[in-house]
Amino acid sequence: MTRPLTQLEMLVELEPIAEQNLNRHLSMAKDWHPHDYIPWDHGRNFAALGGIDWDPEQSTLSEVAKAAMVTNLLTEDNLPSYHREIAENFSSDGAWGTWVGRWTAEENRHGIVLRDYLVVTRGVDPVALEQARMTHMTHGFSAMNIARDKVGPLTDIADVGLLHSLAYVTFQELATRVSHRNTGRSCNDPLADRMLARIAADENLHMIFYRNLCAAALDLAPDQTLAAITLMLKNFQMPGVGMPNWRRNAVLMAKHGIYDLRQHLDEVVLPVLRAWKIFERNDFTAHGDHLRNDLGAYLDNLRTDTIRFEEQRDRSLARAAARRSSAGTLAPSSDRG
């Protein structure tokens, strides 16, 4: 059996691919400015400056849109955690270091524009938003720690950090793109829709960088990389996990099509695995084939869970519609004629 590559060896071997994809990204990324997406003429002072503090009646967002916008913003707010994780697993030198800095700067714009929009338009309670930001950022996030909590010490993969990070951010960036795009559509505001489409375009370019690097890692060390991919997917959690009201907001978003199991499977997991040709490759050893079978079994279970979720959601939505219809039928008539 071939000796697993160390993280340092991986970084050195993948450096030329990182440089190629960094240059590709810089050639395709569009500069944009958060202030261009904010309706500043909607802004006014809060009570501390002689104005009026936030009131729920001031928001034009639905409960679903509020939940999605807050979840997306708090996810972006936790950027220092993500920066630490990729900085520790990549390198501060050469193309790797340049990418880490560029990616961090681009991601920071997302949090800036989302917060400015929500505060200026009074879409959500700014006090509750700030309290949630403090809580979430203090708690932090680590995809590696989640994996360790699930499976214990990661002793079966040499220097798993780089490969696990590459796999995680590939799927996470694509999942975030889907969530942002659907959140924009839910806001019933053309400006919010354009803003979130702009953010989603960034996330897609980030995904492509990571997907290409992970593809190169698969070519370099097929079994080792597949082990990291399988471990990550079986224990995947969105980066917002653990934020205040996470479960309530995630359920609301899934129930109303912002991000659900079907989207996770059909728009995120399967397209990436197809791009990597996971089930077509012939360069795995017997151990790699075992991992691939394990991954296939996981996907079968995910398909079953997806169908079950959709059936439960359909029943729940039908019951809610029936209750609304019944309430409308039973409401007293205003016709006095």
UniProtKB/TrEMBL annotation:
InterPro entries: Fatty_acid_desaturase-2 (IPR005067), Ferritin-like_SF (IPR009078), RNR-like (IPR012348). It comes from the Bacteria. GO terms for cellular component: cytosol. Residues 318-337 are annotated as: Disordered. SUPFAM superfamilies: Ferritin-like. Keywords: Fatty acid biosynthesis, Fatty acid metabolism, Iron, Lipid biosynthesis, Lipid metabolism, Metal-binding, Oxidoreductase. Fe cation 2 binds at residues 107, 173, 203, 206. One of its GO terms (biological process) is fatty acid biosynthetic process. Fe cation 1 binds at residues 76, 107, 110, 203. Residues 318-327 have a biased composition (Low complexity). Homodimer. PANTHER family: ACYL- ACYL-CARRIER-PROTEIN DESATURASE-RELATED, STEAROYL-[ACYL-CARRIER-PROTEIN] 9-DESATURASE 7, CHLOROPLASTIC. This is Acyl-ACP desaturase. It comes from Nocardia terrae. The lineage of its organism: Bacteria, Bacillati, Actinomycetota, Actinomycetes, Mycobacteriales.
